[in-house]
Structures are given as structure tokens and as C-alpha cells.
TrEMBL record:
<dbReference type="InterPro" id="IPR052195">
    <property type="entry name" value="Bact_Alkyl/Aryl-Sulfatase"/>
</dbReference>
<dbReference type="GO" id="GO:0018741">
    <property type="term" value="F:linear primary-alkylsulfatase activity"/>
</dbReference>
<dbReference type="InterPro" id="IPR036866">
    <property type="entry name" value="RibonucZ/Hydroxyglut_hydro"/>
</dbReference>
<dbReference type="GO" id="GO:0030288">
    <property type="term" value="C:outer membrane-bounded periplasmic space"/>
</dbReference>
<feature type="signal peptide">
    <location>
        <begin position="1"/>
        <end position="28"/>
    </location>
</feature>
<protein>
    <submittedName>
        <fullName>Uncharacterized protein</fullName>
    </submittedName>
</protein>
<keyword id="KW-0732">Signal</keyword>
<dbReference type="GO" id="GO:0018909">
    <property type="term" value="P:dodecyl sulfate metabolic process"/>
</dbReference>
């Protein structure tokens, strides 16, 4: 009997929470549009503080991110077998510019670093394909063959990402 009461209370609490969150989300979403809005003064000031705290002239992270790059295509637009564009690094070309007032400069820098793509040699016998979507695939040369570490957080299988290097 006591267990039924606990289950009923938990169910009621979850139902209430989901109802409230759902209605708040719907209300907030109705205010969102595709139009870009200018940064508020608060956001501009907060981002200026980030610029003051960090050395954005230091390019060491870019040097680290490109270290070991063996190959990368000039552009990276990947299409599926039907000719539909499924991944485009070209769409992220805006990242080559400075951060707008609406974006945290540190997060912008991190995104710029994630925008670097290609085949990289991490160390002897360990290679990575990076930047072809939100995940990397790692190849480890073993004594009897290759070990492939693929986390499956992407649009394309690893072999299509490698094939794109040579097209």
C-alpha cells in the first residue's frame, strides 16, 4: 500500500513538472524567431570582460589543433548517395571572422578550433579523422591490424569521411 502511494506521488510530481515545463517552453518558444537580435549592453559588457581575461592574440591553441594534420580537402561538403548535402564545413565559414557581440568570445574561439578538419597523426600508429561532423574517429595500428574507435555521433560512417579526403 505504501509503495502505491509513493508511486502515485512521484507520478503526480512528474506530471505537474512536465505540464509546467511544457507550457513555459511553449511560451518561450513563441517569442523566438529566426531573426538575429542585437546583443544587450549586459552581454556586450560580459563579453568584453572575457576579452580582458584571456589572451586572444595567443595562437598556441590553433597550432595545437593543426599539429599532425596529414591531409584535408580544400572544402568539405559531403553528399549522400542521392546528392543531398548532409554536411558542410563551408556553412561555417563565418567562424573565420571575429566573434560578434552576441557570442561569448571564448566559446567562439572553441568553435573555431572545432572547425579544423582533416586526417591527423596523433602519435606513431594513432590517427584521427576530425571535423567531418560533431565526432572524431580514431584509428590505432595494432600488431595484427587496425582498431577503429568510432563513437557513432555523426551523419556519415567513418569510411565515407576518409573517402572524402581523396575526392
Amino acid at each position: 500500500m505504501k509503495r502505491k502511494k509513493v508511486i502515485a506521488l512521484i507520478t503526480a510530481a512528474l506530471t505537474f513538472t512536465m505540464t509546467i515545463c511544457g507550457s513555459l517552453t511553449a511560451a518561450a518558444a513563441s517569442e523566438l524567431t529566426a531573426e538575429s537580435k542585437p546583443a544587450t549592453q549586459y552581454t556586450i559588457d560580459a563579453n568584453q570582460e572575457v576579452y580582458a581575461l584571456l589572451d586572444f592574440e595567443d595562437t598556441a591553441e590553433f597550432e595545437n589543433a593543426t599539429k599532425g594534420r596529414i591531409a584535408s580537402p580544400d572544402t568539405l561538403d559531403i553528399y549522400d548517395e542521392n546528392g543531398k548535402l548532409v554536411w558542410s564545413q563551408t556553412a561555417y565559414a563565418f567562424l573565420d571572422q571575429d566573434a560578434p557581440d552576441t557570442a561569448n568570445p571564448s566559446l567562439w574561439r572553441d568553435t573555431q578550433l572545432n572547425h579544423i578538419y582533416g586526417l591527423f597523426e596523433v602519435t606513431d600508429g594513432i590517427y584521427q579523422v576530425r571535423g567531418y561532423d560533431m565526432s572524431n574517429v580514431t584509428f590505432i595500428k595494432g600488431d595484427t591490424g587496425w582498431i577503429v574507435v568510432d563513437v557513432h555521433k555523426r551523419l556519415l560512417p567513418w569510411w565515407k569521411r576518409i573517402w572524402a579526403l581523396f575526392l
